[in-house]
Amino acid sequence: MPITLTVPEGLLPPEVETQVFAELTHALLKVAGLDGNSFMTANVVGTVNVLPRRHVFAGGEPAAAAFIELKLPGVALATSESKQAFIEAATNAVERAAQGRIRREQIWTNIVYAADESWGIGGKAYSNAALVTAIQAAAG
Question: What Gene3D superfamilies is this protein classified in (predicted)?
């Protein structure tokens, strides 16, 4: 379940980038009720993209802004409450990590859903049902 965090240079201290990605991962697993699930934990992947300041925009102008994108299968974070919980936790994590270098209003989160049977892991296409089976099998 890829997470992409995009920020301009200087927003996050380099030593904090790994920490904030770990917090985003933990937030997803916690909100989904999957802390400790080996299948899910191994498949929360992603990147921290640090761009030149002149390449990050809000309102058409260069800005101190952060963008969090989460890609999920359709069965994940299926309720409004779970989406809100992830967005709040992710925003809090980035805001803390930026240590006052960004306003909360300049942190955007986007959750994107993949169509059923279009989720691939290790060369295997998973349906939503197959993902649920794999997650449940890893739970015990």
Answer: Macrophage Migration Inhibitory Factor
User: What residue has token string 């989406």?
Assistant: 83
Domain boundaries, the chain: 3-138
CA–CA gap between residue 70 and residue 28 (Å, rounded): 9
CATH 3.40.30.10 fits 3-138, yes or no: no
Distance CA 51, CA 49 (A): 6
CA separation for the pair 123, 26 (Å, rounded): 25
What confidence tens digit (pLDDT) does each residue in 85-129 have? 999 999 999 999 999 999 999 999 999 999 988 888 899 988 989
Residue 76 burial (10 A CB sphere; 0-12, 13-18, 19+): buried
The encoded tokens of residue 30 equal: 């916690």
CA distances to 68, 69, 84, 115, 132 from 40, in Å: 19, 17, 20, 18, 10
